[in-house]
Design goal:
Largest sheet: 7 strands, antiparallel
Strand order of the largest sheet: 1-2-3-4-5-8-9
Helix content: 25-40%
Number of strands: 9
Number of domains: 2
Strand content: 15-25%
Length: about 250
């Protein structure tokens, strides 16, 4: 498992003004209160949970959809988040997005847990930025052809190539370094440069449910027999993989 540096409370609070009291909450996590009564949970450089005096809670991953970020939001935001195919979902089934605001309602008679009510706007999936990103992803996927369908190689992008080992548990074992760290900026670079690597393609196909044997068959059929149907399936898998990471907050089917 890839390690992370242990930050002190002083380091985590550096540059923050108006703190009345604070305490180290967990590894690389500090809990502090501001003059106006706002309670904050900061993990690394991101305030993942901010509780205003009026009860409004703002949640933010900072773009790092990691296991630990999710755990911090759930524990201190009192919100249960589920993850499917790399996408975070709120308790009501809607998709999580950075800056989402909720209130936690009191436990009612006969209920055993508090309800989470979303009070901020639902993020629309058809805005101009989403459309532009989908167009960029489609253009990138069209680069993949029978002649440009690379096999995974040790020279591939490290964030696509490297995987977490078993020491990190099932939540990180076998996951690409980019997903473990929540760093998807490398994918934007690939789109910009038109850089297609085999590790990214195989990761995408695994996420779509293909086994190693099936992936081998697809590669052979496309590269040797120029099978257009299988090429389209590879492109669709890569498109879904990229959309889930570069367009957070929308459903990818």
């Amino acid at each position: 498992m890839f390690g992370e540096a242990q930050l002190t409370k002083v380091q985590l609070l550096d540059g923050i003004e108006g703190v009345t009291r604070s305490k180290k909450a967990a590894r690389n996590t500090v809990q502090y209160w501001l003059v106006d009564g706002t309670e904050c949970i900061k993990y690394h450089d991101t305030v993942v949970v901010m509780k205003a005096p009026d009860g409004v809670i703002t949640l933010n991953s900072g773009g790092f959809r990691t296991v630990t970020t999710k755990d911090r939001i759930e524990e201190y935001g009192h919100v249960s988040i589920t993850q499917r195919n790399g996408i975070w979902y709120m308790p009501d089934g809607s998709e999580f997005y950075d800056g989402i605001q909720v209130v936690i309602e009191p436990v009612k008679e006969g209920e055993y847990r508090r309800r989470c009510k979303i009070i901020s706007d639902v993020k629309e999936a058809d805005d101009s930025k989403v459309k532009k990103m989908k167009a960029r992803i489609k253009k990138y996927c069209n680069i993949i052809t029978p002649k440009k369908l690379p096999y995974p190689d040790n020279g591939d992008c490290w964030f696509c190539l490297m995987k977490g080992d078993k020491s990190g548990g099932p939540k990180t074992a076998g996951k690409p370094l980019g997903d473990i760290t929540g760093n998807h900026s490398h994918l934007l670079s690939h789109l910009k440069e038109g850089y297609v690597n085999g590790s990214l393609i195989v990761n995408a196909m695994h996420e779509s449910g293909y086994s190693d044997d099936q992936i081998g068959i697809f590669y052979h059929a496309v590269k040797i027999a120029n099978n257009r149907g299988m090429l389209d399936s590879i492109r669709r898998a890569v498109a879904k993989y990229l959309q889930r990471r570069l367009i957070p907050g929308i459903a990818v089917k």
